[in-house]
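ok trying this again, last paste got cut off
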Amino acid sequence: MPELQEIKRTLSRIEKLEREVNLKQLQINSLLAITQAINENVSADGLFNMYNSFLRWEIGIRKMALFFKETGKWECMTWLGISEDLLQTDLELELSKFRTTRGVEQSEHPLIKEFDLVIPVLHKDEPIAYTFIGGFAEDDDVYNKVQFVTTITNVIAVAIENKRLFKQQLRQEVLNREVEVAAEIQRTLVPSGLPSGKNYELSSIYKPHFAVGGDYYDVVEFPDDTIVFCIADITGKGIPAALLMANFQANFHALAARRAALEDIVHELNEAVWRVTHGDRFITLFLARYEIATRTLHYVNAGHAQPLLLMDGEITLLKNGCTSLGWLPELPFLETGGVCLTGEALIFMYTDGLTDVRNDEGDDFGEDKLTAFLKENAHCNAKEMNTRLLQHIEKFRERAPFPDDITVLTCKVF
């Protein structure tokens, strides 16, 4: 009965067409549901659950594993039909081999060989997700299923990646704002102006390498013609350095206001830094007191770049002191230095970012060039000295960048 056979074949084609139409409708509904969920900002876990449900129930996928990179390594975010023990195997080297959709039946990896093919998702030529699928039946429309899984995986992967990038952008904006706040705080910690009198003048250079640096200087003037001044270099940069600097400044001003002896100030500052950092960070410090009436300078150098005293045509390094502050809960030794200043004298204090400046050939500015510059410009007042020094450094470094913070405190006494 040829007519009956033809009718059966026609009915079979109609049934197949209906199945295909139904599958397409399911796929469209799934994509619409996923799109709506993305628009409603459903969590990543929620999207992974939807992905799993669609592949299991609407598409009929029997085996699946979806991998995303989390905290620097590839992790399986959702799976079907696979032992959890297999998911613990390392896939890092294997995944790098896959750049296009391809079969994986011949793989020797215990997890990968459970599947039929892998679908990588690339963003700007970098993989952001991999999905493995398998367990197809003989009558499955594999091509259409793979096409849909590829589409929905790309939609999910791009949505998750956008969430990650958005969170990263938010974190960066918060960090930028924190840095701005820290920079504002730091600017309030260093003096906006420096005292001067008929017997002395002070001038500074303050150039943080980043928005928030680790250098600090300060001057406290007392009515009895005594000035206390310091320069410090705090290890590290950024917000932690700014917070430590704020703590240090508060302690320094409190101790200076008590008119404590230099040794007591340094011991207490060391204890304060240790309480905050427990040795993880430290501070180098040069602290001095100058008594104008007696022209005496007393100082403590706590591991800082040795200031230079230019007097009577000679340069003396101010190196007496102790170790850096914050290394140990108690300083193992401390020696106070003292000098009587005769005639006109220059006390030049700096952080090592100055001598670390390099030119295009890689030569350091160094202490020898600094000493030569100071001798050549010894006749200048403090402000003019610093102005010339900045010009000299700019000419020396040519196009090379500054390697670190640069801070200078220059004190000229008459």
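PB: full thing came through this time. The first strand starts at residue 63 and ends at 70.
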